[in-house]
Amino acid sequence: MKTMKKSVLLISVGLLFAVATAHAQDKVETTLSADVVNHYIWRGTDCGNVSIQPTLGVAYKGLSLSAWGSVGLDKDDNKELDLTASYSVGGFSIGVTDYWFNTPEKRYFYYNAHGTSHIFEGYVSYDFGPVSAAWYTNFAGNDGVNKDGDRAYSSYFEVNAPFKLGGVDWTATAGAVPFATTTYNTSGFAVTNLALKASKDIQITDHFTLPIFGQVVANPSDQKAYFVFGFTLQP
């Protein structure tokens, strides 16, 4: 618990310092949308079948707060609610996410260290232009364990490279888990996410476009591959 409090304090101080010293947009921006996907794949891991994934967020002067959820049409799929606070300036971003799943503990407001369904993750990222890189680490909650049975502080590192081809927006992704953890089912360093995603806006009427996307995902560590297709609904 002391480790969790120290981590939250350090990240909070970092966010407050960034807010006090940086300049960004001067008006509140709101995000409201929902993705519908045929398969929920997260960092190369199979998390469910056909799912609806809404997003609600606000941003002001680089500081953003957002809520993201996922509900599968299959009754056996997990339900998920993620809350994120982040700050961005230039190409640099820092943030904290509270992930919640309806298993093993179905109560949301239950934070017992040995039974909660919450996972708390901190991240830092930087957009270099041609590529962006991000590092994520779980620092509290229902994290996995390492080979010794201790908290793994499960981490994940990802590089993304966006480009345009044939009038379509593409993104190539390479992600890896650096250490052994039961969270990602790895016994050491493992490449868990190689993906290629294409996105395009389809003009339906003069006032309505439908963003669609397709993504091929491979997880070399698990020897599995997936194809994800979806579309986004937004005002």
From TrEMBL:
Keyword field contains Signal: yes
Species whose genome carries this gene: Xylanibacter brevis
Name of this chain's protein: FrrB
Signal sequence coordinates: 1-24
Keywords associated with the record: Signal
Domain of life: Bacteria
